Protein: Site-specific DNA-methyltransferase (adenine-specific)
Amino acid sequence: MSSSHSLNFILGTLFLEIIKREQEEKNQESTYTIKSTDQAALEEFDLKSALFKSMHKNKSAKKNPANYRLYHALIEALIEDENAMDKEVAV
Structure:
């Protein structure tokens, strides 16, 4: 085998090894699956978020003291949920 063929063979082998490692890393990153409890929590968060957006858009919190308290409790719940989700992602 000539030196240029040997060099090409070595480079090809190294290139294939790099591709294999990148694929293994991608496979390891994508092994996380959402548990049913996580899915339920996400759906609950989405519902809270939709309610918040609706109340904010139509300014219903300003129309009634009970709505005002609900609006602020909803904001606190959303912040708490976001913090919990951020904490789980960081783990």
Summary: The helical segments are 3-29, 36-58, 65-90. The first helix runs from residue 3 to 29. The chain has a mean pLDDT of 76. The chain has two domains: 1-31, 33-91.
